[in-house]
Amino acid sequence: MLLPFPALISSSQVDVTSTALPFAIPSFVSIASKKVKPALEEFKPETRILSKDGMPVISFSPSNLNKAAAAFNTTLIMSFLAGKPQFDDITRIIESNWGLLKVPKVVVLDFKHIMVRMTSEKDVTRVLSRESRQIKGFFLRLARWTIDFDPNKDSPFAPLWVQFLGLKLYLQNNGIVKEMTGLIGKYLITDTPMLSLSRPSTARVCVKVNLTKDLPTKAGLALTKSSIVE
């Protein structure tokens, strides 16, 4: 700890009989003994020490890297397209409007990206299926964190709501619709009106799609060997 530089005083003002300082200086032991609980569970990884062109290299086993990455399986990355709101506004909207089971850990990664680390897959699905994509007028994208996350590149994956118009009534079983969405992307969630059969004119589901690939504009459904409907 750096002590404050004393003011210049004359020798007559110094009490040479007293050596006590007006404040206590914490010892190194007292500082080092303060326990801080890590946000990530610590484990002992398996390592190998290698050398490449005279440079020391440490190598971790794939299982250890997967274990480290698993801590972020329920983490989302929020990307703002042009500017972003105040951090307090972001956390307030997340806590009050997203309807989560548990308050997530929200951290600023850089000027564009916010990390939202949740504790359950159910909360992740709920957020990805939200149709609102703005906070305080600032538009954003939400994507699941992956081990290849690079803040300088946009994620190729995004949630997308898909509608099956005029789907026959008996085909609106959620198990059937889930399989149908596999033709487009990875199933995330079905909207409430379809589950409750209160809007049979449209079956609507949210899927995760890869934006770098061409998405089908229509798909076929084989009801019998000789009957295929689009």
TrEMBL record:
Domain of life: Eukaryota
Pfam families: DUF4283 (PF14111)
UniProt domain DUF4283: residue ranges: 70-152
Alphabetized InterPro entries for the sequence: At4g02000-like (IPR040256), DUF4283 (IPR025558)
Protein name, per record: DUF4283 domain-containing protein
Originating species: Kingdonia uniflora
